[in-house]
């Protein structure tokens, strides 16, 4: 059936509509519009063979380019050319080989990398802009030596402003900055690395990685306000900020601030992850700190408070603003907040911050905004003490209960709880406790976890929390841990859990419930006993169900290894697994529970041996399973099978050591009979063991003394005989 004729380009319709509405606009406006359209055209031309975007994404991109005013825009993005078919085929094949990493030795891989670099010489910018080959550039960066990284830096030099704005090239820049960051520290600690070796090419120009970073930063100066809201450049800008500050990268940093959730993870099979090199805090030269200060000032220079506050609500600009604010207060001291040109002062200019001021309106607007509340969390977390106390007293002191009720504001309330004194926390706890029934009903328990943890740190009585939670999660048998863990469907008939299916249903509500239960067990006394008592009376069926659940099993593991769990509780729970140890050891989630049983059998030698017997009976199936082999190794079952007496000796009490030996991997734990926490009473069996050990030691001491006396008497008698004969 024939379809209606429609134009392909939506931009043409928009141009026509705007021409009809703005025919009287001057030539300057037309030139500006033509310039923007040309930039968009170049942007799409560079996305070689890029798939068409859907309407929502295209509309968002159009909005990003059209809605920014008051900032300096870069020139139109140049076109660097395209790779021909043979080049694309070669580089894609090289990418596949690097990803598989099936080289005979590191030397062979290094030789292959050199050949790829030779083939890519002069084509680096084309590769970085190519949809199909930009992944190769990222993998090359992950495997490159410091010298190769410097060479790539120099190839990109002069084009960084355009590279960071490109859909694919921006990821290459991000990887380059992350991999080059540790090299700066190495050269700082060993200055001889930056000197030209005698055997090197006399025409080669040796430059330090520090200067290469500074050159790249100089290219971006003047356009920082624009790059903060660019959907590709903003991520690179955040990474560059963290590198200059010497802060931890990737895993230890907030992923929502540094990295897009949709970013593809480029890696090399079997090779050490390149990002691991940049995890720890690094020493950076003074020039980096100076450049960071200029970058922070330059990013907001010329922007008024109105624009900055609008940036706080911008989905792309907000994370960058968070990081700028955090680094300003942590790297340059909290006294920086008093500076008139600081970001903190620009956002909150009023002193004092009172109701009705612009600062008050700004704060109230952030609290319930899904994007702006994240900036408010940063302000609460890093603001100077005087500023925080003023904000808390003015806006939040009497509203903690209502904040905890709201799905968005609850996260701000959690950050506030972390900075309250004991008296302030006690008052906030009274307000939040009243909201517990509603919070449980709406499954908003993250704030309760934070509240319990802070009460434990500050020494605030948790009895009101215990009473409310006992009622909220109560059932026919009192407090029911199955309600807080929100168990789903029962496991399959064969006793196994489908890992993929289980992870797909690992809902946030279940995760928050499990974290709340673990937080409750971290507090000694009645609050933790709610979880312990409920787990002890579950029965075999429900205990196995929890053990096989990927989320709920974390609670069971924490219960078995908790320093506040009594011997009676651990014995009751572990005995419920009798006859099912083998199948649990083969389950992805249950295997971790069996690992926790090793530590949970502290003081229960006979139960530990019983569990080991069941594992030995299932040796064949355990050795065929990946998780089963891990359990077999952690329980040292090879030693059990070959030298059982030695295994038993390690598992039982020995003279002078009344604690079990832990796994070799976790031998630094401090759980033992002599390590009781304050406030915990010994059980009857523990007291009996202590009396028996003391009596045995006293008897041994008495026997030793008696033997010495007999030996001394014999010696004296022998001396007497000798004197008579003489």
SSE blueprint and pairings:
Blueprint: H1 10-21, H2 27-46, H3 55-66, H4 85-100, H5 106-120, H6 124-129, H7 134-143, H8 146-156, H9 160-163, H10 169-189, H11 209-220, H12 224-227, H13 233-245, H14 255-258, H15 286-300, H16 305-312, H17 317-331, H18 343-347, H19 358-367, H20 372-382, H21 385-396, H22 400-405, H23 409-417, H24 422-433, H25 436-441, H26 446-458, H27 463-472, E1 474-475, E2 478-479, H28 481-485, H29 499-504, H30 508-521, H31 526-536, H32 540-548, H33 552-561, H34 567-575, H35 581-585, H36 590-600, H37 605-617, H38 619-623, H39 626-634, H40 637-642, H41 644-651, H42 684-725
Antiparallel strand pairs: 1-2
Helix pairs in contact: 4-7, 7-10, 8-10, 10-13, 13-17, 17-20, 19-20, 20-23, 23-26, 24-26, 26-30, 30-31, 30-33, 31-34, 33-36, 36-39
Would you kindly provide a written description of the structure presented here, covering whatever features stand out?
The termini are far apart. It is built from 42 helices and 2 strands. Helix 26 (about 445-460) packs parallel to helix 30 and helix 30 runs parallel beside helix 33. It is globular, with a radius of gyration of 33 Å. About 65% of the residues lie in helices and about 0% in strands. The chain has a two-stranded antiparallel ribbon. With about 725 residues, the chain is mostly helical. The chain has a domain at about 35-45 and about 65-190 and about 205-300.
């Amino acid at each position: 059936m024939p379809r209606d004729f429609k134009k392909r380009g939506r931009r043409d319709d928009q141009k026509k509509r705007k021409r009809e509405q703005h025919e009287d606009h001057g030539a300057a406006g037309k030139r500006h519009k033509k310039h923007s359209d040309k930039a968009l055209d170049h942007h799409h031309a560079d996305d070689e063979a890029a798939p068409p975007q859907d309407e929502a994404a295209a509309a968002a991109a159009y909005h990003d380019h059209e809605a920014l005013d008051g900032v300096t825009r870069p020139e139109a993005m140049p076109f660097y050319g395209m790779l021909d078919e043979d080049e694309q085929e070669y580089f894609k094949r090289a990418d596949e080989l690097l990803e598989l990493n099936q080289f005979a030795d590191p030397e062979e891989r290094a030789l292959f990398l050199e050949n790829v670099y030779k083939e890519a010489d002069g084509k680096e910018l084309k590769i970085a802009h190519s949809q199909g080959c930009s992944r190769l550039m990222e993998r090359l960066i992950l495997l490159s030596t410091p010298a190769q990284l410097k060479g790539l830096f120099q190839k990109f030099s002069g084009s960084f402003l355009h590279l960071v704005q490109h859909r694919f090239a921006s990821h290459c820049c991000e990887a380059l900055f992350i991999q080059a960051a540790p090299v700066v520290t190495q050269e700082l600690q060993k200055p001889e690395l930056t000197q030209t070796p005698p055997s090197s090419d006399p025409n080669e120009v040796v430059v330090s990685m520090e200067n290469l970073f500074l050159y790249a930063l100089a290219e971006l100066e003047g356009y920082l306000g624009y790059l903060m809201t660019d959907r590709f450049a903003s991520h690179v800008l955040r990474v560059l900020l963290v590198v200059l500050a010497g802060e931890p990268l990737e895993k230890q940093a907030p992923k929502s601030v540094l990295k897009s959730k949709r970013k593809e993870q480029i890696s090399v099979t079997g090779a050490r992850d390149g990002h691991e090199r940049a995890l720890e805090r690094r020493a950076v030269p003074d020039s980096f700190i100076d450049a960071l200060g200029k970058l922070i000032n330059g990013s907001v220079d010329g922007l008024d408070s109105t624009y900055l506050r609008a940036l706080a609500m911008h989905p792309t600009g907000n994370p960058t603003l968070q990081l700028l604010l955090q680094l300003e207060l942590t790297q340059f001291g909290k006294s920086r907040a008093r500076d008139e040109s600081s970001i903190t002062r620009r956002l909150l200019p009023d002193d004092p911050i009172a109701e009705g001021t612009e600062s008050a309106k700004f704060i109230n607007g952030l609290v319930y905004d899904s994007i702006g509340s994240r900036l408010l969390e940063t302000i609460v977390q890093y603001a100077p003490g005087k500023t925080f106390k003023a904000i808390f007293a003015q806006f939040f002191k009497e509203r903690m209960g209502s904040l905890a009720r709201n799905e968005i504001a609850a996260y701000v309330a959690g950050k506030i709880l972390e900075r309250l004194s004991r008296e302030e926390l006690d008052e906030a706890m009274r307000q939040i406790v009243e909201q517990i029934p509603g919070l449980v009903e709406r499954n908003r328990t993250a704030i309760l976890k934070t509240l319990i943890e802070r009460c434990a740190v500050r020494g605030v009585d948790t009895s009101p929390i215990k009473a409310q939670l006992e009622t909220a999660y109560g059932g026919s048998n009192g407090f029911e841990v199955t309600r807080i863990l929100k168990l789903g469907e029962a496991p399959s008939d064969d006793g196994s859990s489908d890992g993929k299916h289980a992870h797909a249903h690992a809902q946030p509500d279940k995760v928050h419930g499990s974290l709340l239960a673990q937080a409750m067990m971290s507090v000694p006394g009645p609050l933790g006993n709610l979880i312990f008592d409920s787990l002890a009376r579950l029965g075999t069926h429900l205990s196995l169900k929890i053990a096989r659940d990927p989320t709920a099993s974390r609670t069971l593991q924490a219960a078995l290894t908790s320093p506040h769990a009594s011997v009676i509780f651990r014995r009751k729970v572990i005995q419920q697994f009798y006859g099912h140890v083998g199948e649990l050891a083969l389950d992805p989630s249950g295997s971790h529970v069996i690992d926790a049983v090793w530590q949970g059998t502290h003081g229960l030698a006979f139960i530990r041996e019983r569990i080991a017997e069941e594992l030995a009976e299932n040796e064949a199936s355990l050795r065929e399973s990946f998780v089963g082999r891990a359990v077999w190794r952690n329980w040292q079952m090879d030693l059990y099978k070959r030298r059982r007496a030695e295994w038993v000796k390690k598992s039982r009490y020995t003279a002078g050591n009344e604690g079990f030996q832990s796994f070799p991997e976790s031998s630094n734990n401090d759980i033992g009979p002599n390590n009781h926490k304050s406030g915990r009473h010994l059980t009857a069996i523990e007291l009996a063991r202590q009396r028996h050990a003391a009596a045995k030691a006293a008897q041994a001491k008495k026997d030793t003394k008696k033997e010495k006396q007999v030996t001394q008497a014999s010696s004296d008698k022998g001396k007497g005989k000798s004197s008579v004969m003489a």
